[in-house]
């Protein structure tokens, strides 16, 4: 029985070798002429050019779409903040309409202070923070020195002693430098 299997395996193996030998012979028979090779290569070049043009056009469309989306974001980027400011604008308009009716100045001041507090809370929710600069060492990354004040005590030298215009950060990025006076 083993002999039969071996003979069968040898026979199968011989058939495979014969088929393998015939394949290169068939390929050799299919050998292309130089003109056919050139035509085939030119066809491949044309296909690659078309693919390349398609990719360039696709990338150009992508770039234009991204530029359009970016322009739209810039144009309407403040919509969220402005929408949140509308209730404060409403409060200010009501206060303005009722100012002449109130004779109690303290009530008007209190109402205005409430509106201002509401305004700063809203801005804080959006990431805005007012810099606390008085008494801090001068830092050119946060402050803009507009005055140097001589004759200050030694422990005050190099520190901010007055703030003329408040500085602000938005999400930890300086959006306006504090204009300060620094002790010399």
What do these coordinates show?
By secondary structure, the protein is α+β, with helices and mostly antiparallel strands. Helices cover 61% and strands 16% of the residues. It contains 4 helices and 6 strands. It has helices at residues 2-29, 34-76, 79-98, 105-125; strands at 128-130, 143-149, 160-165, 168-170, 173-176, 178-183. A 3-stranded antiparallel β-sheet has the order 1-4-5. A hairpin with a 2-residue loop joins strand 4 and strand 5 (173-176). Helix 3 (79-98) packs antiparallel against helix 4. The longest helix is centred in the first third of the chain and has 43 residues, at 34-76. The radius of gyration is 41 Å and the shape is elongated. The termini are far apart. The mean pLDDT is 84.
Chain-wise SSE layout:
Elements: H1 2-29, H2 34-76, H3 79-98, H4 105-125, E1 128-130, E2 143-149, E3 160-165, E4 168-170, E5 173-176, E6 178-183
Parallel strand pairs: 2-6
Antiparallel strand pairs: 1-4, 3-6, 4-5
Helix pairs in contact: 3-4
Largest sheet, if any?
A: 3 strands, antiparallel
Per DSSP E runs of 2 or more residues, the count of β-strands stands at 6
**C-alpha-based Rg, rounded:** 41 Å
Strand content: 15-25%
Rough outline:
elongated
**How many helices does DSSP assign?**
4
Helix percentage range: 55-70%
What class do helices, strands and sheet pairing give? alpha+beta
Poorly predicted tracts of residues: none
Give the averaged pLDDT, no decimals: 84
Q: What is the element string, with H for helices and E for strands?
A: HHHHEEEEEE
The N- and C-terminal alpha carbons lie at a distance of 110 Å
Instruction: Trace the largest sheet across and list its strands.
Output: 1-4-5
